[in-house]
Amino acid sequence: MKPLVLVVEDEVPIITLLRYNLEREGFKVVDARDGEEAIMLAQEHRPDLVILDWMLPLLSGIEVCRRLRRLNGGGNLPIIMLTARGEEADKVRGLNAGADDYVTKPFSPSELMARVRAVLRRTKPGNDAEQLSCEDLVMDLVAHRVKRAGRDIHLGPTEFRLLRHFLEHPGRVFSREQLLDSVWGADVYVEPRTVDVHIRRLRKAINADGERDLIRTVRSAGYSLDPHAVAMV
Ligand code: CA
Q: Cα(123) to centroid of ligand 1, in Å?
């Protein structure tokens, strides 16, 4: 079955351009012209990926992104934000709202297609894999074991779940609140600071002396598994 991409954009020429390129790459496309329609179509069609414009009528792309994340199954939905705003602060806001990647207009269609493929590669295979890895770190989900460079790593249950979450979404930046929701569960009340404590423990456990830190701290945004590491797998 062809993967389905939901394009959310109010400018018709851009929809036409994206549709042409996506269909040529073997995707099916549905499009929404505003945020409300986007949420409705996402619920109805369950797309495999969303390309989401920042500047939209009614609801901003950021708000749409947040709402998509809250939908049933929306936590793992790959989202690429498209925007004319190239500021670093905007990028952080976009990633913080839950976007997986960020492309600045004007974009080259071939670059965007490469990003689409990369995001799908990153987000898809993890879901039912028996093993997750990043560089020399390997998590065996069946045996519930973690190794780095061949040595056993002992993790507490929270660190294990935290690491699994990062490995399933390499390169994506998660805020403390998002990590609390996904790793601890939305119904548990834990201070956001607690996340820092567990990140520290996780880092201590997986990074031996001289090894590269696989966890990246993104200022004012949160944490991610280092995307450079992912590119080298
Ligand atoms: Ca627009």
A: 26
Strand 145-148's sheet: what is its strand order? 131-134, 137-140, 145-148, 151-153
Distance 10 CA to ligand 1 centre (A): 5
Bridge partners of 32, per DSSP, are 8
- Residue 90 DSSP one-character state: H
Tokens (6 digits) for 110 = 């071939």
Distance from chain centroid for Cα 197: 23
Question: What is the structure's pLDDT at 114?
Answer: 86
Cα torsion for 98, 120, 38, 45, to the nearest 10°? -130
Residue 192 alpha carbon to ligand 1 centre in Å: 34
Ligand 1 centroid – CA 42 distance (Å): 18
**pTM higher than the cut 0.85:** no
Q: What does the pLDDT look like over 11-54, one tens digit per residue?
A: 999 999 999 999 998 899 999 999 999 999 999 999 999 999 99
Domains parsed from the chain with CATH numbers? 4-122 (3.40.50.2300), 131-225 (1.10.10.10)
